[in-house]
Amino acid sequence: MKWSELFTSSVGKKWIMGLTGIFLVLFLIVHVGLNACIFAMDGGVMFNKAAHFMGSNAVPRILEIGLFAGILLHIVQGWSLELSNRAARKKGYAIPMGNKGSKWYSRSMGLLGTLLFLFLVMHIAHFWVPSRITGLDPVLIDGKEFHNLYGEMLQLFQGNLLVVILYVLGCFALAWHLLHGFQSAFRTLGLTNNRYLILVEGAGALFSILVPLVFALMPISMYMGWIK
Ligand code: HEM
To answer: Which residue has the least CA distance to atom 5 on ligand 1?
Structure first.
């Protein structure tokens, strides 16, 4: 395959989807791990310190540029693949297969991805923009000033049921998107050995349920007052 075909052929586009998808899965592991510090029940001290480390060091800041580029590429190629799939589907199969050929969420990756994109636009406006651009209130920890990202989360989720529901719906979309996407990425990149495929499918299912569940517990716990 030529380099240019990575962006023009459908096999190339699927490769880009797989590679950027795995990169985004790695980001989710870091993101959910760092955010889980809010469950330390220490008034956000550990979380604010961890977020400060990510925001003030060169390596995470450079990776952040790669992250936004990766998200953009994943979305653009995803929409482009969705359009070619729709054109192919118009021709149709001789016998419609319904749910027998594939699961509904495998056939709805474009829709689920678009819902996630809408979630991300709202989410970036809630946290990334104040954290990096418009500014956040400071909080004193051990005599040093930190951005109070924890306070920002509390303020957003406490007493704001609509936002909490939108975040939980975003987590559902993420779970279904990952249920197909995780194992699909490994198949596209050439994993064909049946024994490893079973392992990847198992790890994929676990990841797709566990990570969105932990994310969803964050707004829910703050709304319910389980963490303050
Ligand atoms: C549902 C619970 C979630 C909470 C409470 C949460 C919280 C946060 C916070 C506080 C930030 C700002 C970090 C900083 O500026 O240092 C952030 C950034 C970000 N989040 Fe989330 N997040 C959640 C779920 C998600 C999900 C499900 C995704 C992806 C599908 C996601 C993608 C991002 C991205 C791309 C950024 C910007 C990159 C960065 O600065 O690290 N988040 N999130």
So the answer is: 218
